Each structure stands twice: as C-alpha cells, then as structure tokens.
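Known limitations

Files may contain more than one protein. Parsers should not assume a single record per file. Below, a two-record file is shown to illustrate correct handling: read the sequence, read the token line, then continue until end of file.
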Amino acid sequence: MNTSDLRKVRWGILGCAGVAAAVALPGIRQSRNGIPRAVSSREISKATDFAGRFGIEKAYGLYEDLLNDPDVDAVYIPLPNSLHYEWTLKAARKSKHVLCEKPLARSAEEARAMAQTCREYGVLLMEAFAYRFHPQNLLVKRLVAEGRIGRIIGITAVHSSGLPSRKADIRLSRELSGGVLMDKGCYCIDVARFLLESEPVSICAKVDFHSKSGVDDRVTAMLEFPSGARALFDTSYRLQDGAYQQGYEVHGETGRIRVPWGFVQLATYRSNQVVATTIYVTDLLGLNTEEIAVPAAHQWQLEFEYFSDCILQHKPIAFPSEDGQLNMRAIDAIYESGQKGLCVTLK
C-alpha cells in the first residue's frame, strides 16, 4: 500500500452501472480523500474491462469476493433498487461503510432494517443524493434560513424524461423495483424535506402506469408539511425521446427562488464537464429578479469527499440512514395514495 493512501478511503464498487462510470468513478478519482480500489460484477469480463478503463487495481467476478477484500473500506452500491437491501446488509456484516444509490430501498421497512444492521456493525450508511452537496442547493438553503423570501409556503418541482430507450432497462422492470418515482420523483420528495427540514404529514397522489412494462411512468403528488407549506411535483417518462426536464422553485411569502438545474448537471453526467450554474431570486412583486451565478462544482466528488471525511474522522453524517428511511416512508405513502385514490395521513 502506498503511504499516500493511508488517509484515503479505499472504495469498492458493486456492479458496473452507468451511473458508476459516468459520475461516481470520476467523483472518487477527483476527490482528495478517496481512491477506487476494486470493482465487481457478476461477469468477471465486465469487471475486468471496467477496471481497465478506469485504472482500478482489482476486479472481481463475485460481489462477495469484493466484500471479503481487506483493502476495501467502503462500498458504493449502484445496483438495481431491488438489490440495495441485500447487499447493504452483506456489506455491513463485512464491516464496510455503504454509500447506496437512491432510492435507499424498496420500502421504509427495508430501509429501517438496513439502518439497524449498519448501526449494529458500526458502519455508516448514506443514500446517494449528490445534489445535496452542490453549492447552489446549499446556497438556496442558506437564503431560505436567512429569510430572503420569507416563510416558505410552497415548493414545486419537476423531474421528467422520455421513456428509457432500452427494453431491458432496469428502470422499466417491476421485478427490479423500477418506475419513475423511484428513479426521478424521489429527488422531488427529498428536496422538499431538505429545504423545509421536516417531514410531510399528509400526501395526495395520482400514479399512472405504463401499459407494457407495468411500472409507474407518471406520478403527481402533493405533500403537506407541519408548517402548512405544500410541495407539489410532477415526474414522468412521458416526454419526447431525448427530452429532459428538471428543477425546483421555492415560493415564500415575500419572494421566490428558482433552481433550473437543481438535481443533475447533464454536462457532468454525460461528458464529465463541470459547469457553472445559476439560481434566480425574485422579489415580492415579481418585478426584479437577481441572477446568482454559482461556480462550477462536481457534486458527486463533493458527496464522496463528505462521506469519506466522516469515515476518516469518525464523524456522524448529516444525512444518516434514517433520513433515507423517511424518504422511503413518503414514497410508500405516494404509492398507497395512488392505489387507494385517497390522501394518506402519515403518523
């Protein structure tokens, strides 16, 4: 082992998913305190090819072999949603810290068990919502806390695209717990909880399903919070092929803040270009809008640096596994509301 690696988290990656190649690996490699040590796949040829492309030292043909590697401190799990529960538990039992892709689990019950197991084995577990580490979203949170737009009365959000083009895409598989709510809508829920720093008390939702795949392909929901603020979002796979829409707006008593690229920077995801962003703050009457430029940032790099710092410094994380459990609680309620055609009260 190089002495320069002693103060770095040695990462293992379970699976060769597109998100791992597009943003997670670059995030780890560019981080000041992490290094990619190993990758695994159920096909050794895939793992070997992936390791070669990204300069990763070790490749395994079994996930278990990576978890048994003493040179791996933490794992990143970008596996299909249906596998998050199983492999988080197995990783924890091997004393590996876990950064798990969103959504954390298939249900709040699974997320609760994941959190409990990680606590029992003394490892950290965090849901991978990288947007929470981007400076633009931290700035919005600060402006809200400072009262720049007054008390929040509402949040609107959208996160939509065309239908995934590959027939075998995991997002179109019911067996793998796909669907647009788990894929994109979970961001809209999380950003409301992130900014309001509270949990919804009631949810009303309409859930539509794709005629062929059977997964949800459009979800519209309203979440009411204890303060009286309401979050309304729409997420779907019903845009034209190649189209993509995202962003959120915070409505306050004295103004509003619009964040057009709040969740993902496509230039970073698609070509590893780190780009600047802009948020827009509008005054009480809507007559004046201030454009605030935010310097370029690689939000996945910041996410891995934050999580690695917590591991190395033995610090609690600001978004512990219980946070992911609460986001899943809201997702469960949305599906329940859509199924029953009624609003659901959360206790």
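...continuing to the second record:
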Amino acid sequence: MESYINEYNQKLVSPETAVQLVNSGDWVEYSAFVMAPKVLDEALSKRVNELWDVKIRATTSIFPAQVALADPSRRHFLYSSWHFSAAERKLHSQGLCSYIPFLFHEAPLLYQRYIDTDVAFLTVAPMDEHGFFNFGTSNSFTKAIADRAKRIVLEVNDKVPVCLGGSNESIHISQVDAIVETSWDIPEIPNPKINDVDRAIARLVMEEIEDGACLQLGIGAMPNAVGAMIAQSDLKDLGVHTEMLVDSYVDMYEAGCITGRHKSIDRYKMAYTFAMGSKKLYEFVHRNPVCASHDVLYTNDPANIARNDKVVAINNAIEIDLYGQVCSETAGFRQISGTGGQFDFIFGAFRSRGGKGLICLSSVFTDNQGNLVSRIRPSLSEGAVVTVPRTVTEYVITEYGKAILKGRSTWERAEALINIAHPKVQDELIREADRIGLWVRSSKQVG
C-alpha cells in the first residue's frame, strides 16, 4: 500500500497543471453520465485562448460543458456527445454540441478499432488499498477509453460511490499519468412526473410480466410507473439485466420482488452498466454485492441479453410509423437523446426464451399551438431517425392497447397500429394508409 501512496503523491497535481497535458489538435475523452469530469472541464475551458482544434467526446454529461460554452466559435473546442442529456440538448440547439451515432453495446469495439484518443479525463472514486480507482456509477465504456488513451487524468472525487464488478469497473494507478483531487456531490436526477396515460400504459405492460422475468427499464415516466406498480404487486423472483439502474429497481428490491433466482448469468445479482437517480440509488449501489457493474459490451450485447429467460425490455419512443419504424431520439431534425441501448435490448429480448421487447408511447401529444398530434403516423416526420427498424419492432403499446408486429405484413401492421391509436385520429390514419397503399381490409372502411 505504501508504494501506491508514494506513486499517488507523485502524480497528484492541480487541475490547472493536469490540463496542460492537452495539446492543440488533441482528442479528449470525458467519462460519462453523472461521472462527467466537472473540475477538469472547467480548468480546460480556461485554456480556450491557448488551444486550437481540441475535439472533446462525452456521453450524457449532466453538467453543461464549460469547454463548449467558452468557445461559441467552436474553433478552439469542438464538443460532441454519444447520447444527449438535457444540458447537451440545449448546447446542440445553440450549435455548440454535435451528436455521434452508435449502438451502445458496440462502443468498446469502436474504440478498439477506429477511435484515437490522446487524453482521457475520468471521474473516479478514491484509490483502494490495492491501487485501484473505481469508475463509480458510470462503467459503460470507460475502460475502453482508458485502454485507448495516450494520457490519463483522474478526477478523484470522495463523493463517488464504489460500484462493485462485474467487469472492467476500475483502473490501476500504474495506468494513470495525473491525479486531481475534488469533492462535489454526484448530481441527482429527479424522477419524471407520472401522469394518467403513463399509468394506463404501465397497467398494460404489467400484463406481460410474470414471475421470474428479467427486467430492463428505459428512461422516462412510463418505465418508472411500471417499476412503481411492480413494487406494489405480488410479482416475485424477478431478475435485473439492464443498461441503466434507476430508483425503481431499489424500490422493487426492497419490496422483495427482485431476487435474480432464475437468471442464467449474474444469478442473484442486478447487472447494469450505469446508474442515474437519487441519493437513495447512489447509497444503494455503494459497495453492495447484489449489484454488478459491467462494461456495456457485456450488458448490452444482444447475445448476453438473450442468455437470460423471460427478458422484458421496456422502452419509450417519440413516434412510430405504420410500417413499425420507431423513432426514439429525434424530433424531426432536432436531436433529443440518442439510440443508446434501445435497439440492443429490443433485439436481444426477442431472442430470450419467453422474452418480449416493448416499445411504449402515449398515443398523442399536444403541440405548442394546442393541436392534438398523433405519435402513430403514416410515415415518420421529416428528419426523424429510425432507432428500431420495422424488422426488429415486436410489441407496441399505447394507452389504447397492444400491437404485436413480428411476423405481420405491412397491411396487418397498419391495422394493428391504427387500432391502438387515439380514436380521434384513427379515421385520418386509415385514409393515409389507403393513400400510401397499406390498407387492404378492415372492419373500418376508408372515409
């Protein structure tokens, strides 16, 4: 231990000294989600007039990136993200953040095969007695970044929970070039408000979950509504294999619904690749052996997802067309979030024995002019990106019912989706389906 402490002290520097490792033209990597490097980002932003063409890659940074705000011209710092947070969405609207398309599970492979990295800024927990720093709540592809980086700077934060592996959840001091000590509270993510439509959809989802199922919950109010209902149900022996660990899992576990008894891999453990939520969640994952932090190539590989039986993947969407193409990341040309792991889990859940991939969305929303707009559309909006292709979409659920699209022809898909659309838009959808050649027969006639 003494030798590790000596090495630690030799590498301990100020934030201002650490960011001197960045040179003009470098590619700089930030650790992800609530582990985004706060102090190093601010220190690097202050070098804005010294550096040119520094490219920064991040993932769902909860903090507004200071490097982006410091350089509206984007000549000094060019900031991009693999998956947008609310802060990055705002930066994107200001022209200060670019999006990087990817499938979440492939991220480590992208770094191995294609991506050059000069400097990595990684937020970690304090060093343990063996010389290791834990990646905290954001395992994801942090180890892949570290393995690729020429220079590594750790932002050691004594508020970071230690999240046990799993796999690839830590880095050794021998791999590190510089260390900066910090102390700031991990951002808490408030649970989204649940409305009556969310509850109606959640009740339909509950009908598809049985004892021993293995759960993946996506981001949003509706998956949280499902978690709340499960915690109050008599479901038992549920398993968890997910990308994102949220507060709902803590509630389900404490209610006795989760045991992992019937899982094939990580039996009795809740496998995940990152956690975002409240202080309650961060306290729950800290040194808790029931939680297994893995890198994303493990959690999100469709083959690994399918190894567990009865996987139920529950995810939100922005819109879907009558062919079954799902958009979950853009509103027209505006990037809202990213592909993330939605494709991974919808694809993998179908290959699980008894598994189901659920795309859930409210049937309509009200636009800024007060108009009722259907989320089920004849074709996707102009500029909308296909997150889940029609060949992969299985279940679609709105507050009006369920549609199973697998194995169905285009006209059957159109009928099934129109049947779960809002009643006020169904006639118009029928007319549009007829116009584009999807309508063959139905109890409803073209008006």
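Parsers that stop after the first record will miss the second one. For reference, the second record is described as follows. The mean pLDDT is 96.
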